[in-house]
Amino acid sequence: MMDHKIEVVGSDFEEFATSNALLVDKTEFINALIENGDKVLLITRPRRWGKTLNMTMCQYFFSIPVHKDGTQDDEEYLKRKNVFSRMAIGDYPNTLKEYLGRVPTIFISFKGIKGSTYESIEMGVRDLIYMLYAKHEYLISSDRLSESQKRLFKKFLTKEFDLSELNSSLLYLSEMLYIHFDHKVMILIDEYDTPLNDWYAKQLEQGSYVKEDTEYVQDVLNLFKNIFGSALKDNTYLKKGIVTGILRIAKASLFSGLNNLGEDSILDNDCSKYFGFTERDINTLLHATKMIDNPEILPSLKSWYNGYSIGGITIYNP
């Protein structure tokens, strides 16, 4: 039998699941999202709690695998089915049948968007939107999209879109995906508050704050409020939206217009076991790596990484 090993691979679920790395199975989170009744769900956790890994897991599970011409990639679908059938979500055959590889999905992460000026933030977001549209370039060849929609799509590929089009970029893409696949869209927004959190951290570190800072914050807030609002509020093409972040404080400013928003934080129970490691997860890891035989390991782990209790569940976090 091949020995398992713990590897630091990154935050991409597909890379984890298709490698020899030891992966803690959180796939039941997918079923929890399906059963959740909120149209849009905001999940907040501190850094390094597995938010991005869970979001890329959802993207890998829900999204429709396609060839360059937009037709479904059956080989890739079977590959994903093999991955998830062997995991905890495999105990929910109806979920696999109805949702695996069947939901057009938009995944966008703002984890890397950082800057000290509004212009640098907007440029970073523009690049992010360009890369997002490039992943769905097959839509240009869709016989279901109108010529005007294809012209609009090409503007995003050539970075010739204006601020108004940037504000509506996720809405436009969800509409095009809906028309092409004839199915409502899942929108996954990861680390929505990173640009603001990064700026606040820099101000605290420098101990400075001037009038221009207030204008900067307001401009950035307006940019993200417009992008998120158009995508998540009254979007008739939206099946479900999942948003992750670190803090709740930006919520009031960025999602104030949403009346369909649910929340799950470290004070809530619904998603408690899906972020961070439970004691059961820790024991599974130690047994799989044969580290459980060392009597000093578990006390050390508790000393360094224990300290959270969410919904009556003890959570470890690196």
Structural class given helices, strands, pairing?
A: alpha/beta
Q: Assign a percent range to the helix content.
A: 40-55%
Round the mean pLDDT to the nearest integer and report it. Answer: 85
Number of separate helices? 14
The tally of strands reads 8
Q: Biggest β-sheet: count, sense, barrel? A: 5 strands, parallel
Q: What is the total domain count?
A: 2
Q: H/E series, N to C? A: HHEHHHEHHHHEHHEHEEHHEE
Query: N- to C-terminal separation?
Result: 29 Å
Low-confidence stretches: none
State Rg.
Answer: 21 Å
Furnish the topology, listing elements before pairings:
Elements: H1 13-17, H2 28-35, E1 40-44, H3 51-62, H4 74-85, H5 93-99, E2 105-109, H6 118-135, H7 147-157, H8 163-167, H9 169-181, E3 185-190, H10 194-206, H11 211-232, E4 238-245, H12 251-254, E5 261-264, E6 277-278, H13 279-288, H14 297-305, E7 308-310, E8 313-316
Parallel strand pairs: 1-4, 1-5, 2-3, 3-4
Antiparallel strand pairs: 6-8, 7-8
